[in-house]
Write a structure and sequence with these properties.
Blueprint: E1 6-9, H1 17-23, E2 26-27, E3 31-33, E4 48-50, E5 54-55, E6 64-65, E7 74-78, E8 81-82, E9 89-98, E10 103-111, E11 117-126, E12 133-142, E13 147-156, E14 167-175, E15 179-186, E16 192-200, E17 206-212, E18 215-224, E19 230-240, H2 249-260, H3 264-283, E20 286-289, H4 293-308, H5 335-345, H6 349-360, H7 363-372, E21 395-398, E22 405-407, H8 410-413, H9 416-432, H10 435-456, E23 457-460, E24 463-466, H11 483-502, H12 508-520, H13 547-550, H14 558-561, H15 564-568, H16 577-584, H17 591-603, H18 612-622, H19 626-641, H20 654-668, E25 671-674, E26 677-680, E27 688-697, E28 700-707, E29 710-717, E30 721-725, E31 728-732, E32 735-739
Parallel strand pairs: 26-30
Antiparallel strand pairs: 1-9, 2-3, 3-4, 5-6, 7-8, 7-13, 9-10, 10-11, 11-12, 12-19, 13-18, 14-15, 15-16, 16-19, 17-18, 20-27, 21-22, 23-24, 25-26, 27-28, 28-29, 29-32, 30-31
Helix pairs in contact: 4-20, 5-6, 5-9, 5-20, 6-9, 6-10, 9-10, 9-11, 10-11, 10-12, 11-12, 11-16, 16-18, 18-19, 18-20, 19-20
């Protein structure tokens, strides 16, 4: 296998400091660590997060993912001058994220005010071998003169969520003049967080300790001799009270550091690298492209999806920013089921099962929300966290022109998430035939979500409408009969009845009301121009020229010229609901209808949502418009990796990374599935010579390789399956190949 790509930063730019802190972040699904620099900069947002650790700073506030005390920061003084790339002179600078083994390194040659040069190298990783472990290493060489160095580092609890403090210091101490140990508790959720850290230093170092102002620090002083390296290794551990362990977190954190401190950085990262190599061997997508950024983007997407997913524990899910920042308060949206879970489902289904189990574990809270809003069944929250309660803020930020807050309507009307979860349940079952899951978890989710939709309708002259909703396109609020929502609700109820019958677990009242629902639900149809109306009124609204806003896509620039209410009354889309529907149900409409709707709705879409471009890429590829599909794909890949310095300040665009994988597999490879058949009808971009990827289908592990001339499918393990390639059917026992 070719080496996985490395992300590089070749010069320091303060404008990009938080973007790179996000995109070069480290993590293992349990723990996420922003790639902030060791030294301190006022503009820099440090961040360390553990899956499931949420808190409210006040009773009236919103629950958010807690930014934990910092374990990587260092104050470095050389000859009494504080090291900073903003002072002195940077002779050379290079920082890279090695995604092959999950390591961040930085090497700088720095000239101080006296003209003396020092080479500083920093390394760090979050272990994929031990979820609770992170380690860093610093190497300093004086190139011109003997000098002195002083390093202050330890556990810094001055971190906060943009000023909001979530932790109370319970206990801090230094054990055996070696291990710094601190225990904190969240102020409202009462989670305990225990941290331990220790530094390996030369025997000649002078080490002392200090505790002050929420900081527990080791102060390390050392003489530097010309050309002789000074090395400092820092080994740390993180445990919490919600870990699946009978161990006391405080004791476990100490014990872990005690046991591994002597192992050293080198052997610890080697163990972690082995696990990362296993991941890449099992799941990597390889593209032979004339544009190397395509492969970099896919490597980047898979790296982050792996490190953001808490595959160790079904009580947690994936936040909209993963574990890389505080955007969206770390909350879980529909993104997980529709954009992120499929990657896991078709490579390692057990992880997708856990993500769905997270929803099942909170079905009680979803039922309570439905009842509170006057509905039956389960109404899952638009934004959720550890408790499964609705976490969507009631109000958005204050409008600085009017001084008023705008009410956030998502929790009240963006109900398609209910059907999104049901869709993911069916997708999981159809790819795994996991009977135990469907009988115990899936069917319950399908029944309660179906109950919700039946109660959510309004009877209008015998036709059932779904009124006052928000579809995925959040520029169009409080509309009736949103096509995406109605079709998804219809599918939801249909599947609930199907699986009740299949497993002979029929609830008579639900079954009869469900059959009535399916007969009478209004499903928007294509008009005489073959356009499917996004909702009851969208096609009657005025149009404006969106070209200047498309050029600034992702910035919501249109809201500088028009109010949200004005945008709501025009044919303006943040992302196209109908195109999303066409992606999820590729055979629902005739090919000419799909093509016309893709063209129509793209003209009215600004693509201000990071989820938009990749989905357009999939539908365009299926329509044979590979040139535009490839353009959409490449633009989608630049959402985090592009030149915009502020694009990822508050965290990664988690769902868009999942969508990049979806565009590759379901767009360009053009995989679709029927009950017991896998279909492949490729549409490779001209720039791509070959595409290879693993794919798990109904218990069988496949390796699929596509070129412009052939498709080769190799069965790695599993039973015989039926595959259709460009219309020709094959029964795969070992390996097949067919010419296009």
């Amino acid at each position: 296998m070719n080496e996985v790509n490395v992300l590089n930063e070749n010069q320091f730019d303060l404008q990009y400091i938080n973007k790179y802190a996000t995109i070069m972040a480290l993590g293992n699904g349990y723990l996420g660590l922003r790639a902030s620099h060791e030294e301190y900069y006022a503009e820099q947002t440090r961040g360390m997060y553990v899956a499931g650790i949420y808190n409210k700073s006040t009773s009236n506030d919103v629950t958010e993912l807690v930014n934990l005390p910092d374990l990587v920061g260092m104050k470095i003084e050389i000859n009494d001058e504080i090291f900073s790339v903003l002072s002195g002179e940077i002779v050379s600078y290079n920082r890279n994220l090695n995604m092959q083994k999950g390591e961040l390194t930085r090497e700088i040659v720095w000239k101080n005010k006296d003209g003396n040069r020092f080479c500083l190298k920093f390394q760090r990783f979050v272990s994929k071998d031990n979820l609770h472990l992170l380690a860093s290493k610093m190497n300093v060489i004086s190139l011109d003169c003997d000098a002195t160095i002083k390093v202050t580092t330890g556990i810094d609890a001055q971190t906060s969520n943009f000023g909001k403090q979530h932790l109370v210091e319970e206990n801090i101490r230094v054990i055996d003049k070696k291990i710094l140990h601190a225990v904190y508790k969240t102020t409202e959720s009462n989670h305990m967080i225990a941290l331990a850290t220790s530094c390996n230093t030369p025997d000649t170092s002078d080490v002392s300790f200090v505790a002050k102002n929420r900081q527990l620090m080791a102060i390390i002083k050392q003489d530097l001799i010309v050309d002789q390296p000074f090395e400092l290794e820092k080994i740390s551990s993180v445990y919490t009270s919600i870990d699946k362990s009978e161990q006391d977190p405080a004791q476990a954190s100490i014990q872990t550091v005690q046991e591994i401190i002597s192992a050293g950085y080198g052997s610890l990262i080697e163990a972690s690298s082995i696990k990362w190599n296993e991941f890449w061997k099992m799941k990597r997508v390889i593209i032979s492209s004339k544009d190397e950024t395509d492969q970099i983007a896919l490597d980047f997407s898979l790296y982050h999806m792996e490190m953001m997913t808490p595959s160790h524990d079904e009580r947690f899910s994936v936040g909209a920013k993963g574990l890389t920042g505080e955007g969206y308060k770390g909350h879980v949206f529909w993104d997980t089921e529709i954009f992120i879970a499929p990657f896991h489902l078709f490579t390692e289904p057990e992880v997708a099962r856990k993500l769905l189990t997270y929803r099942y574990l909170h079905i009680k809270e979803a039922k309570e929300k439905a009842a509170k809003n006057g509905y039956a069944g389960a109404l899952f929250p638009w934004e959720s966290a550890f408790t499964g309660m609705e976490e969507t803020p009631e109000y958005a930020a204050i409008n600085i022109l009017t001084g008023k807050r705008q009410k956030v309507a998502s929790a009240l009307a963006e109900h398609h998430i209910v059907a999104d979860i049901a869709y993911a349940v069916c997708q999981y079952y159809e790819n795994t035939f996991d009977k135990a899951f469907m009988e115990c978890v899936g069917l319950e989710l399908l029944k309660e979500t179906a109950r919700f939709w039946i109660s959510r309708t309004t009877d209008e002259n015998g036709v059932l409408s779904i009124k006052d909703v928000i579809g995925p396109d959040e520029y169009t609020e409080h509309i009736n009969n949103n096509s995406y929502t109605n079709y998804m609700a219809n599918y939801n109820v249909q599947q609930a009845l199907k699986y009740m019958e299949k497993y002979n677990k029929i609830d008579e009242v639900l079954f009869e009301s469900g059959k009535d629902f399916l007969k009478r639900i209004y499903l928007p149809q294509a008009n005489e121009d073959k356009i499917i109306p996004q909702d009851d009124t969208f096609l009657t609204k005025p149009e404006i020229d969106l070209s200047k806003y498309k050029q600034k896509q992702g910035s919501q620039a249109i809201l500088l010229d028009y109010s949200r209410q004005e945008v709501n009354e025009m044919q303006i889309l943040k992302q196209a609901d109908v195109v999303m529907l066409l992606y999820l149900f590729p055979t629902l409409f005739e090919a000419d209808v799909v093509k016309k709707n893709l063209q129509y709705y793209e003209e009215h879409t600004i693509h201000d949502s990071s989820l938009s471009k990749a989905i357009h890429a999939i539908v365009a590829a299926r329509c044979g418009d590979v040139e535009n599909a490839y353009r959409f794909f490449q633009e989608a890949c630049l959402i985090d990796l592009g030149s915009n310095p502020k694009s990822s300040d508050e965290g990664i665009h988690a769902a868009s990374l999942g969508a990049n994988w979806l565009a590759t597999i379901f767009g360009f490879a053009n995989i679709t599935m029927e009950t017991n058949k896998l279909k492949i009808n490729p549409n490779l971009p001209e720039n791509w010579d070959k595409l290879s990827f693993p794919f798990h289908f109904q218990g069988t592990n496949l390796e699929i390789t596509i070129t412009h001339e052939s498709v080769t499918v190799t069965k790695q393990s599993g039973t015989e399956i039926e595959i259709q390639i460009n219309g020709e059917v094959f029964h795969l026992k070992n390996q097949i190949s067919t010419l296009l």
